[in-house]
Write a structure and sequence with these properties.
The complex is a heterodimer of chains A (about 325) and B (about 270). Chain A has about 325 residues and is of the alpha/beta class. Chain A has twelve helices and twelve strands. A three-stranded parallel β-sheet of chain A has the order 1-2-3. Chain A has a three-stranded antiparallel β-sheet with strand order 9-10-11. The longest helix of chain A is centred in the C-terminal third of the chain and has 23 residues, at about 265-290. In chain B, about 30% of the residues lie in helices and about 30% in strands. The longest helix of chain B is centred in the middle third of the chain and has 21 residues, at about 125-145. Chain B has about 270 residues and is α/β, with parallel strands linked by helices. A six-stranded antiparallel β-sheet of chain B has the order 6-7-8-9-11-10, with helices on both faces. A three-stranded parallel β-sheet of chain B has the order 1-3-5, covered by helices on one side. Chain B has a two-stranded parallel sheet with strand order 2-4. The chains are: A alpha/beta (about 325), B alpha/beta (about 270). The interface of A and B includes residues 13, 14, 17, 53 and 80 of A.
């Protein structure tokens, strides 16, 4: 349950009456609906002791479930308001250890759920003046998750500082130079989709070896299906796939990409988008096979050769198996 | 009756203005003599707004003498004697350094929001704290006074931020007297600070004004509250309280504030 202060309190976000209304809404979520409650203060300056006292601090006097503090998230609170909230809760001698972080679909994400990242940029107005815009998160009208190239780059900066489960090494050293990206994005999408059997990081590395031999500028237009366009970059994402990953197409229900065809050669973007596409391919393979597919079968679906017995398909399968063997995977 | 207005119409020269405010209740016509007046501060505009509304309600006509057209800025000074009560819009006034607004009926955070937009050149933290103080004062006023209209002002002047809230509703002494007994109106006002710091009786609260006063103290500020026949001038940094006995009866409560901070321009 999300309470957006800007929408819920358009005329009064200051008084005790408004605070009381907020408290009742929170209680309704925690007690009646028994769900997690996020109170989103985005775009608001509250500047009111009364509102915080009545709306948040007095929750301590209510008869709430034991774990209510874990289920209440206050997001996008400005730092001055946070100070006021701290003072008010201390004054009532209670602790409300609420998370002030905006709720994100993954802790590595820069933007909260329903928003996308825009980097700092200069923009020329109609009058010709140039204005500077700081980096920011902007609301997605659909409320869905959208990944931009800028945020993808930011997320990789975050996971580069994290301990990751790295793939095994190929003998050829140059084939190991993207290990961090592979490990980071595999973990990111495994965390996001939480499959019963996580995608093994070695499978992604073997897929890349079989698709592009780790040549980032690799372009392949040998596909018989002309409409899919050229396969591009490390994981050989087709032009058609790049379009299907966008919000404008009806292929995905969430976790869309807003990336340009040019960005797809960026190894970071390519690996990120390709692994997201693997999770979509898993769904498609499940429909085809009428059972949960193995990740090897998902790889074949990605290559468009699941249930394909042709010579070319067998050759591709063998290549993939070889790469998996080299990484020590037995299946 | 003819009343000589002060040289500067502001919260600093209140004696005559309160006298006029009182005289309106018993006179059918009075004349404002502007001979000495050379400046109207933001607080002065709010006081004039209150007086004008009182006069219309009491059926007292106000005429002007020796009016300097250079003072002809605020809409309330820019028209013939109104037949009916002016709307909120007519009480709105702003220039590069000041803002005057009247709000009808109940609490509205509009003034605090407009304040933040207008005085964006002030330090962010100061804007936030001023918003907090304004919100709290207005909320307190709407809770206890039941006034039909509230008058708010803010002005940046001489490295100070000057702002306040005025109403013409039930006074603090009248409200306090419902529950407590004090020897004078200034005692009632002083007592209202001590007794839960608020006259609010609608809901249990109390921390709002306590925090407000702490903030004013941090900014080396002072607060003047006038209500009915008494008043309190409170210098927070010095912990000094001066009790004021008014010669004339004031309808409602007038609250004037001054705070100082680095970053407030001259």
């Amino acid at each position: 349950m999300k309470i957006v202060i800007k929408n819920e309190f358009p005329h009064d976000w200051v008084t005790r009456i408004a605070g009381e209304k907020l408290r009742k809404l929170i209680i309704s979520g925690l007690v009646n609906e028994k769900v997690e409650v996020e109170v989103d203060f985005a775009g608001m300056t509250i500047a009111s002791v009364s509102f915080f006292d009545e709306g948040i601090a007095k929750l301590a006097e209510e008869d709430l479930p034991k774990d209510w503090k874990k289920k209440l998230i206050l997001s996008n609170l400005n730092p001055w308001d946070k100070e006021v909230l701290d003072v008010v809760t201390k004054q009532r001698k209670i602790e409300v250890p609420v998370s002030l972080e905006a709720k994100k679909s993954h802790p590595w994400r820069i933007c909260p759920v329903g928003e996308h990242f825009v980097r700092a940029h200069d923009k020329k107005s109609k009058k010709g003046t140039i204005g500077h815009w700081d980096s920011q998160c902007r609301k997605n009208p659909s409320g869905k998750e959208i990944y931009t190239t800028d945020e993808i780059n930011k997320i990789s900066e975050v996971f580069s500082k994290t301990k990751l489960k790295m793939p095994n090494l190929f003998e050829k050293e140059s084939w190991n130079r993207f290990d961090e990206l592979i490990a980071g994005w595999t973990q990111f999408w495994n965390d996001t989709f939480n499959p019963s059997e996580p995608l093994p990081v070695n499978y992604v590395k073997a897929l890349i070896a079989s698709e592009s031999s780790f040549i980032t500028s690799s372009t392949n237009s040998t596909s018989k299906k002309k409409k899919v366009g050229k396969a591009q970059g490390l994981v050989q994402l087709t032009e058609e796939t790049t379009k299907l990953l966008s919000h404008s197409k009806k292929e995905l229900s969430d976790h869309f990409f807003d990336i340009s065809q040019g960005d797809i050669f960026d190894p970071n973007v390519n690996v990120c988008a390709a692994i997201r596409w693997l999770f979509r391919k898993k769904e498609i393979a499940q429909v085809r096979l009428k059972r949960i597919p193995t990740w090897y079968e998902v790889m074949l679906e990605y290559k468009g050769i699941l249930n394909d017995k042709s010579k070319e398909a067998v050759k591709q399968q063998t290549n993939l198996q070889d790469q998996l063997h080299k990484l020590g995977e037995i299946f | 009756m003819r009343y000589l207005l002060p040289a500067i119409i502001s919260s600093s020269y209140l004696k005559n203005l309160i006298k006029i405010s009182d005289a309106i209740q018993t006179n059918k016509k009075i004349i404002f003599d502007w001979k000495n007046t050379r400046e109207i501060e933001s607080s002065g505009y709010s006081i004039l707004s209150v007086i004008l509304d009182h006069a219309i309600e009491a059926g007292c006509q106000i005429d002007s003498a020796n009016f300097d057209t250079r003072l002809y800025k605020h809409p309330i000074l820019n028209q013939k004697w109104p037949k009916a009560r002016l709307g909120e819009r007519e009480h709105f006034f702003e220039n590069s350094r000041s803002l005057n607004i009247s709000i009808d009926g109940s609490f509205s955070p509009f003034f605090a929001t407009r304040f933040a937009e207008k005085f964006h050149f002030l330090p962010e933290k100061l804007i936030f704290h001023a918003q907090m103080i304004l919100n709290e004062l207005l909320q307190n006023a709407t809770d206890h006074s039941g006034s039909e209209r509230y008058y708010l002002y803010a002005e940046v002047k001489q490295h100070k931020l000057i702002f306040g809230v005025l109403d013409s509703g039930i006074s603090i002494p009248a409200k306090m007297a419902q529950k407590y007994e004090q020897p004078s109106d200034e005692n009632y006002i002083d007592f209202s600070f001590k007794e839960g710091i608020t006259t609010r009786r609608l809901r249990k609260g109390g921390y709002g004004l306590f925090h407000t006063f702490n903030i004013i103290k941090d900014y080396d500020g002072n607060l003047v509250i006038l209500s009915r026949s008494g008043g309190i001038r409170r210098y927070f940094a010095q912990r000094k309280v001066v009790r004021l006995q008014l010669d004339n009866h004031l309808r409602g409560t007038w609250c004037f504030l001054e705070i100082k901070s680095k970053g407030i321009p001259e």
